[in-house]
Design a protein that fits this description.
mainly alpha; 15 helices
């Protein structure tokens, strides 16, 4: 049913649906969002560079587009973590998941992608599901009213831009793209480190005390990053953003079991809409793949060559 790129995006989205929990554990232990982002992504970056030196050298040969991709997704990741730790999670998520609105213009400008009728319908279905799941009448319209909410909005816009640029950089390997992105996250965290109230010495001691958890998150980020790069590099940007919305379904279930939050009827309805859109997107991609194979296969009805 699903192609490998679609499955890779589903795996990556599933990870993002639960990653808030270990970051929350680190925050409760005294390691704030900036330091936890720096430590976990820094660990992933070091492991990747040591394990894959050839890809690290390729990543070091930066182009303007690869640099922009790394910084865009780097700041998006940091903004997302800070937003969900500082503000009302559902409000930040609502603003972050406006990303499907920003993807089509970026994809049109940078990739020349046009949405067909089926693509518009699938995106509309997924976006409707996101709004159903995230809608809270008491918090009003999705317009930023504070720092955390502006972080959520910025994270969504930068994620949409980075998603399109990943597709544009076809000459880079998945690992090289991931290394550039992790470096971008580390740079973003270092730039904002001066705003942290946590002193370096204290942060170092806390990091040593929670080393196994930080290393585990870093390894998970490494695996997730590769899965996302594999999928994003092989699927149209407008379709990829639909599949990534499946994170909301995983996040709702994780919040129920890990944080004791109650799943409401609208969560089930919204999750069903997103799952349906994901299934439809996967079916469309598989169908397109079969058509491409059929088009490249010589017709069996062709006359035999002359003897």
């Amino acid at each position: 049913m699903f192609t490998k790129p679609t499955l890779a995006l589903l795996v990556g989205a599933s990870f993002w649906g639960v990653v808030w929990y270990p970051f929350r554990v680190l925050d409760q232990a005294g390691i704030d969002g900036i330091w936890s982002t720096l430590l976990t992504y820094g660990f992933a970056l070091v492991v990747a560079c040591v394990a894959f030196p050839r890809h690290a050298l390729a990543a070091a040969r930066l182009t303007p587009l690869s640099l922009l991709m790394g910084l865009a997704i780097g700041w998006s990741n940091l903004a997302y973590v800070l937003g969900v730790l500082e503000g009302e999670v559902m409000r930040v998520l609502l603003l972050f998941y406006l990303a499907p609105l920003w993807t089509p213009p970026f994809a049109r400008l940078l990739l020349g992608e046009r949405l067909d009728g089926a693509g518009v319908a699938v995106m509309g279905l997924a976006f409707a599901g996101a709004l159903v799941m995230l809608w809270r009448p008491e918090i009003g319209l999705p317009w930023p009213t504070g720092r955390a909410e502006w972080l959520g909005l910025a994270a969504g816009i930068l994620f949409a831009l980075g998603n399109v640029l990943v597709r544009r950089l076809e000459g880079m390997t998945d690992m090289a793209k991931s290394i550039v992105i992790w470096a971008g996250v580390v740079i973003a965290a270092l730039v904002h480190l001066r705003t942290s109230s946590l002193a370096t010495g204290h942060a170092t001691r806390l990091a040593l005390d929670h080393g196994p958890l930080i290393a585990s998150i870093g390894i998970a980020l490494l695996a997730m990053g590769l899965a996302l790069q594999y999928g994003l590099s092989r699927l149209p940007a407008n379709r990829a953003i639909v599949i990534l919305l499946s994170e909301l379904v995983v996040a709702a279930v994780a919040a129920h079991y890990l944080a004791g939050e109650v799943l409401r009827p609208q969560d089930w309805v919204g999750g069903t809409l997103i799952a349906s859109a994901t299934l439809a997107s996967g079916w469309m991609e598989a169908r397109r793949g079969r058509r491409a194979v059929a088009a490249s296969t010589p017709s069996s009805g062709a006359p035999p060559p002359p003897s």
